[in-house]
Amino acid sequence: MVDQPKFTLDFSDKRLLENQPQIDRQILSFVVYSADNQDNNSWRYGLTRINGTTAEQVQTEVQFFKDVISPMTFLDDLIMATYYEEKGLLLDALTTYENLMKKAPGIEGFEMLYNSFVWRRLQKIQTREMGG
Length: 132
Fold this sequence. Notes:
mainly alpha, 2 domains, two-stranded antiparallel ribbon
């Protein structure tokens, strides 16, 4: 179990965009290695970073939500997590679900929603790997 990050990927780091064409989506590929054993590694993961007009549209929509529903309630966090998932912003959805569980520890329903989100993502990965 890892309790502290060994590496943090900062998506606002301009070096990620160096020598990249101006496109709306950029795929970042990475592998996670064990600090103790370089032979112990994960599958290759890919993250899609949105840029340009797509990013601007999402930022505008998120700001609208935050302006309308401030301060955020538990229900608002659930709405935002669903919004992020529907837009394919899976790290944002995951982070929102995790923050919701931290805000309200012990509420089983939130943990069930989080687990359901993770399960849906795993099913999509398995379907993709099986050529479906």
